[in-house]
Design brief:
Its main location: secreted. The chain is built from nine helices and twelve strands. With 342 residues, the protein is an alpha/beta fold. It is globular. The two termini are 38 Å apart.
Length: 342
């Protein structure tokens, strides 16, 4: 067990003793700040000078969008297992580190100095993305199985990912077997509406109801879990964009901290002034051929590799936001106290 996890559990025990309330450590994880406050006083970890690693925490972040992983693609949204694996290996070799959609939207992620966050998102809950074999392990050839294999080969890469699901995801009624497994293994389950509804063609009441229905279905499958993000089916934004983040239906409500569009271009840093949590762009995973290839992952990753100063590069300190003084990006006002230029 890691030192941080041990401290977290100890903090939960202390809070329980102090308040007399029962707290489930598996569901109520203390914040990073609470854990640090409870840790024994030690010298802060050494981090390199931001300039030495070319830190730019106002740079763009690729949020990649996947659908089916199949041997014979039928549309530009499909990827073969070989192409999917190759893209993950490329990301690992280019020092990208996966973070969940919620962590990105919150600006609450900690990746090593000199590395770049990437968000891996999967829409529609297709069984080629994830299913469990009779032994309760990810089925061979699924996206999750391939991710775990690549993470084993490149240990710093990790398996953080976000799955935006509809009713009965992965062919699993209610998602009661699959969704708890994903959450237990550090992955995120997001809302994709109950019926893959075109929200741009729906009334505000219909938008609220379809989002809430799926929110409640995810909560029922994973007790104690709160979906934090949503992906728009078809990339269709409702007439009231704010309904993607919050809605009330009778006594019930849902709240999301980020809403994601269909593939187009890299997303802004979550610390940037132009970051909009209700309209976060994604990049469609695709080779540099076929329809709309200029919007695909291969082209954008090539572009960022050729102009590395444009991408988000971590300074290694999660409490500081470093970027060059020459940056054309501006940090959001609420982060002003944490910014550091060089």
């Amino acid at each position: 067990m890691s030192t941080t996890r041990m401290v977290a559990i100890a903090l939960v025990a202390a809070l329980t003793a102090a308040t007399g309330c029962t707290i489930d450590a598996a569901r109520h994880v203390p914040s990073r700040q609470q854990v640090r406050a409870a840790e024994p006083s030690t010298s802060p970890p050494s981090v390199p000078d931001p300039a030495a690693v070319g830190a730019n925490e106002l740079g763009v972040v690729p949020v990649l969008m996947y659908h089916r992983i199949v041997a014979e693609p039928e549309t530009v949204y499909d990827r073969t297992p070989e192409a999917f694996r190759a893209e993950l290996v490329r990301l690992a070799k280019e020092d990208y580190v996966p973070v969940t959609a919620a962590s990105y939207a919150d600006g609450d992620f900690d990746v090593p100095a000199g590395t770049h966050p990437v968000v891996l998102t999967f829409d529609d809950g297709d069984p080629t993305q994830f299913s469990l074999d009779p032994a309760g392990l990810p089925a061979d050839g699924t996206a999750v199985s391939i991710m775990r294999e690549v993470a084993e080969e490149y240990p710093g890469f990790g398996t953080a990912a976000t799955f935006f699901v509809n009713t009965d995801p992965f062919g699993d009624p209610g998602g009661r077997r699959t969704l708890p497994w994903l959450v237990a293994h550090g992955m995120e389950v997001g809302n994709h509406t109950a019926n893959h509804t075109n929200l741009a063609q729906s009334t505000s009441d219909q938008v609220r109801q379809d989002i809430l229905t799926q929110d409640q279905a995810i909560r029922a499958a994973v007790p104690g879990y709160s979906p934090a993000t949503l992906a728009f089916p078809f990339g269709a934004v409702p007439d009231e964009p704010g309904l993607a983040l919050h809605g009330v239906v009778g006594p019930a409500e849902y709240r999301h901290r980020g809403a994601f569009l269909v593939g187009a271009n890299p997303a802004p840093s979550p610390y940037a002034a132009d970051f909009d949590p209700a309209a976060i762009p994604r990049i469609r995973s695709q080779d540099a051929t076929g329809a709309d290839a200029k919007y695909c992952s291969t082209v954008w990753l090539d572009s960022l590799a050729a102009a590395p100063s444009q991408r988000y590069t971590s300074d290694g300190d999660p409490d500081r936001i470093s970027f060059p003084a020459t940056s054309q990006q501006t940090a959001a006002a609420r982060f002003a106290s944490r910014t550091a230029t060089y």
